[in-house]
Design a protein that fits this description.
By secondary structure, the protein is of the alpha+beta class. Strands 1, 2, 3, 4, 5, 6, 7, 8, 9, 10, 11 and 12 form a twelve-stranded antiparallel beta sheet that branches.
């Protein structure tokens, strides 16, 4: 952790995104520009000093099927995290991945492999419209994060059609960004490929985020973000070592 402290990163985490801020203080382009600078400076430290000791940064599985290692907080309560989608591990665990948005700005530098995703525009449908994943018609659920990594998923019955508008593929060394609230996306990195990204999340601006699910009944759901096991962490370390060369 002492290596990150030199960059202004202090111990702590905000895995449940409970640190809130005024979005007026986090203009998107300025946040993304500052994040690119920090992530660039942090990259060699993460690869050389942090990645070989990932067991010291307890993490959990994200519903999208990737590992999340919280690394610390900045002075403005933004969160530095390492995300690893290990090659050869399924992407569809924990009821995901699904199209979703974020209540915070997200900036990311790809450390190893290739990151890909698809961005969608949502079109509201009549509440009686039949949910049909084949035509990208989904029920919108609110994600309510609870202590211990448990999410409650609640819907008010809203049905939307998700129209793909942009496919992104971003190689190692490059950046991608996701603006809070307005952008819906889904990660699409194939399970046979590695994608490791160094992420800076701003504090949250809203308490509500959404995920699109195939649930015609509209019943409440629950999911658990499981803690990473040692073999998961060792696989992440090994793949980063082989690819990034630390």
């Amino acid at each position: 952790m002492k290596y990150l402290e030199a960059l202004g990163i202090r111990p702590g985490h905000d895995v449940a995104h409970r640190n809130f801020a005024d979005p007026k203080q986090f203009e998107p382009e300025r946040f993304f520009d500052d994040a690119r600078t920090l992530l660039t400076k942090a990259t060699p430290i993460i690869l050389d000093k942090v990645a070989p000791k990932l067991e010291e940064y307890p993490g959990r599985w994200n519903p999208g099927g990737f590992m999340v290692f919280p690394l610390g907080l900045t002075d403005d309560d933004s969160s530095l995290r390492l995300h690893v989608s290990a090659a050869g591990m399924p992407r569809d665990i924990l009821c995901g991945p699904f199209i979703h948005n974020h209540g915070w700005h997200l900036a990311s530098r790809i450390l190893a492999g290739n990151y890909s995703d698809t961005i969608f525009q949502l079109e509201m449908q009549h509440p009686s419209t039949q949910v049909d994943p084949e035509t990208n018609v989904w029920r919108r659920y609110e994600t309510r994060r609870n202590p211990g990594g448990r999410d409650d998923l609640i819907t008010d019955g809203t049905v939307v059609k998700a129209v793909p508008v942009l496919n992104r593929e971003i190689p190692a060394g490059n950046f991608h960004t996701i603006e809070a609230v307005t952008v819906y996306h889904i990660p699409t990195t194939p399970p046979e490929q590695l994608a490791a990204t160094l992420v800076l999340d701003s504090p949250a601006f809203v308490g509500t985020t959404y995920v699109l699910l195939d649930n015609s009944a509209g019943t409440p759901m629950e999911r658990q973000r499981r803690e990473l096991e040692r073999d998961n962490i060792e696989l992440a370390k090994e793949q980063l070592k082989n690819t990034a060369g630390f």
